[in-house]
Amino acid sequence: MKAIGLYKAASVETNGLFAQAELETPQATGHDILVRVKGVAVNPVDFKVRQGKADDGTFKILGWDAAGVVEAVGDDVTLFQPGDEVWYAGDVTRSGSNTQLQLVDERIVAKKPKSLGFADAAALPLTTITAWEALFDRMMINREDIAANANKTLLVIGGAGGVGSIAIQLGKLAGLRVIATASRPETIDWVKNLGADQVINHRNPLDEELKAIDIANVDYILCTSETDQYFDVMAEIIAPQGRIATITEAKDNHNVDLLKAKSASFAYEFMFTRSMFQTPDMIEQHKILATVAGLIDAGTLKNTANESFGPLTPESLRKAHALLETGKAIGKITFDGIPG
Prior knowledge:
Layout: E1 2-5, E2 19-22, E3 32-41, H1 44-51, E4 66-73, E5 85-88, E6 101-105, E7 109-111, H2 118-122, H3 125-138, H4 146-149, E8 153-157, H5 162-173, E9 177-181, H6 185-193, E10 198-200, H7 206-212, E11 218-223, H8 227-237, E12 238-246, E13 265-268, H9 273-276, H10 284-297, E14 305-311, H11 314-326, E15 332-336
Parallel strand pairs: 8-9, 8-11, 9-10, 11-12, 12-13, 14-15
Antiparallel strand pairs: 1-2, 3-4, 3-6, 3-15, 4-5, 5-7
Organism: Thalassospira alkalitolerans
Subcellular location: Cytoplasm
InterPro entries: ADH-like_N, ADH_Zn_typ-1, ER, GroES-like_sf, NAD(P)-bd_dom_sf, Quin_OxRdtase/zeta-crystal_CS, Zinc-ADH_QOR/CCCR
């Protein structure tokens, strides 16, 4: 089988950054299914793992968003059979999806939306699971209590990114008043089209931006951008007994006592936690993806694929990483599978 990966960490401008290799086809055992990958997408985790690649001469396959067709199943598999069309984000501790054939645990996979092609379907798994877990697991928003949520506000910092684009929609489905941050005309239009009730500019102090629309505090904050940049202002604008979740690392030490008087909570969301630690509730990601597939097919949720880079090749993958690293990508970048 063909796979695209890298042998050592390098800047995105490096010629020959990614290479294509011919590898042996893996065999499905246990809870694993073998998927023929038909579509993939890129996420910031891709370039972060690339930048941290050990210089040990090994061939590292990136990619944690895919859709494809099941080719074979392990002895313990009960959810799928060969021929099923599936989608998944995968496991960051295992080989990624930038390959023709990939092993993935059935418990973090679901049947893909019937209404989407493979590349479009690949745009959603990682960001959908991340946004879902952040809102409904980490911040414990009751997505079914629409009446109670109508009086509560969700601020999504970085609304036009992959996770923000899904979080806006999930927040609206739960009945929340959603405020998204965006700074460019095209990103403002994007978040409005996804259902954001109001838009503020994250290039300005967020407390001042909120005051300008007559909001002093928000009940929930999802930070998809720089935690270090926004921690203090999030502590300032979170409502008493409010909840904050972030998906980005903090390099600085922050004073969590800023949250004490408000009894506010702060949580990290890392969608690979369940697969990385093989948690007892690992199958929840299968359930999330199955639920979202139904919402997509019903037209309740919009796909967030925004740019297609065509077939997956070493050069098209390098260009996608370059765009992601600018921080200016809107929605998701997708590819068809590796040719041949």
